[in-house]
Amino acid sequence: MAELTSFSYRVGSSILSGLDARFKLLFLVLISLASTKAGLRAMLLASGAMLWMLSDVRLSLAAVLRELRYFLLLLVVIFAARALSTPGGVIFTTKLMTVTREGLFDGVLVCWRLLLIVLLGLVLTATTRPAEIRAAVEWILKPVPVVSAKRIGTMMGLIMRFIPVILNQAGETAEAQRARGIENRKNPAYRLIKLGIPLIRRTFENADRLITAMESRCYSESRTGPTLTAARKDWAALCVVIVLSLLMMFT
Amino acid sequence: MKPKVIIATENLSHRFSSGRLGIDRITLSVGEGEFVVIAGPNGSGKTTFIRHLNGLLKPTAGRVLLDGVEVARDVMRARQMVGMVFQDPDSQIVGETVYDDVAFGPENLSLDRNEIHNRVDASLQAVGLSHLADQRPHLLSGGEKRRLAIAGVLAMQPRVIIFDEPFSSLDYPGVRQVLQQIVRLHQSGHTILVTTHDLEKVIAHAGRLILLADGSIVRDGLPGDIIREAELFGVRAPCASRLGLEVSSWLN
Prior knowledge:
- The complex is a heterodimer of chains A (251) and B (252).
- Chain A has nine helices and two strands, in the order ααααββααααα.
- By secondary structure, chain A is an all-alpha fold.
- The two termini of chain A are 42 Å apart.
- In chain B, the strands form two sheets. Chain B has a six-stranded mixed sheet with strand order 6-7-8-3-9-10, sandwiched between helices. A four-stranded antiparallel sheet of chain B has the order 2-1-4-5, with helices on one face.
- Chain B is built from eight helices and ten strands.
């Protein structure tokens, strides 16, 4: 489980890897917003751009889709819900359900948009060091009053660091319980409680140790942040993304 | 000439909120550049004691002096001066990548970016992890994680490095890697304190052995002089010394 995932930074010399993290976050927001208005032609255009990005980062589409298999299952559910709940020209009907032409079209479009946004997120994380994403979020939150941008940045970093550790521990606990025959208990609530309680306890104990270790390394909120610099290529990329977003919204 | 005292404790005691006494009136001094092993069974107070040396725990009574300055007066100085490598590296490593983790300490010291970069490079090089700078920490082996934890401490340029049970759950190559690192750090002038209940792996390199039992120092001296008594206090003596032989290094 620790081998998760494509959603992690990989060292590379792609065009996207060389861009400022703040711009990449902005691109993610712009294209995601534009995709909510995008029709079929616009989605084809955006998907072409996405395929270029995946090849620039050297991520294989097949490997990415394999990694997203559970998300694809969710998309199937969303598609079915849309296909069955949107009124329009009936394709076929039974006592329990009616599938419409508009429902199918709407379902495909919604799933396509969601997949595009998730793939954008994947490209962002694959081409940006976690520390740079953290720094970009801190930079964005800096002007927001009351919110401690540094603290949120640290929390983000710790979440990224500890998700694989917690998943590993969940795997270990589940294996230990299988070794003691938990599969003979058919009640899912019982099994969830037996897995959840030790996992939560262990996670809190680790959190305690983590705090001690951070204190030992002089943790403070006035720490040096990563340096982010916007270059001409970032502005050029922003122009391209703005044009792409406008095309998506108005074609 | 006697080395300059870098750590001194005076009647150091700590009582936990449960009422249990963790350590009881510990008085000792450690000279700069010494290699000290602190041994004792589980619950003897080893970890409680070392956590007072950089201000992670506050004493109930007594005090700790680092190079003549009381820890309580300047905790940040103490934490910079005394680096601590914890027993479980998974709870010590905070960075999303190896590089980020080593940079965590220097960033907390508000150093400028160039200085942070230089320190991280030097520390990763010192522990032989430069080639894994962009690796995610949870994918490292046990030995590599310990070395990363050491690099994280080294980047803060401490004068004293404390290792809490550094060999627990490591295989033989992992033990050798970590031991080699500890020995190198000692040779480069750092004062080293190692807590353990397993003397076998490290004692050949130590210049001093302190035995703890029930929160008190029960023996303090040259390893050769007191190692045979370790078993009286719940610590297994190395095989060689039980047979009346000289203990040899695990690095040979």
